[in-house]
TrEMBL record:
Keyword annotations: Heme, Iron, Metal-binding, Monooxygenase, Oxidoreductase
Protein name: Cytochrome P450
Cofactor(s) in the UniProt record: heme
Stated family: Belongs to the cytochrome P450 family.
Organism (species): Clohesyomyces aquaticus
InterPro entries referenced in this protein's UniProt entry, alphabetically: Cyt_P450_sf, Cytochrome_P450_fung
Gene Ontology terms for molecular function: heme binding; iron ion binding; monooxygenase activity; oxidoreductase activity, acting on paired donors, with incorporation or reduction of molecular oxygen
Length: 86
């Protein structure tokens, strides 16, 4: 399915490779700065279920998670970036 996004043959999107690399870099940068954890409720960690909404394009059912900076240094980096790029 992923290969169909940018078409193929003579009609292929010339920016497809750049878009793939940009998405990869964005995800890698986010994972390097943020700590993403399962949410704890009532002292117990809640395991999100593996459920999807029906449709032509299936999406996972929304679930709760905790996203925090990995350290105070990472938090300061995020705050500075917000000031430079609001």
């Amino acid at each position: 399915m992923r290969n169909w996004i940018f078409a193929y043959g003579r009609c292929i999107c010339p920016g497809g490779h750049i878009a793939d690399k940009a998405v990869f870099l964005t995800i890698a940068q986010s994972l390097s700065i943020f700590k993403i954890e399962k949410l704890a409720e009532n002292g117990r960690t809640v395991e999100p279920g593996l459920r999807f909404e029906p449709g032509v394009v299936s999406h996972p059912v929304p679930y709760r998670t905790s996203i925090t900076p990995r350290s105070e240094k990472h938090g300061e980096l995020i705050r500075r970036a917000e000031m430079d790029y609001p």
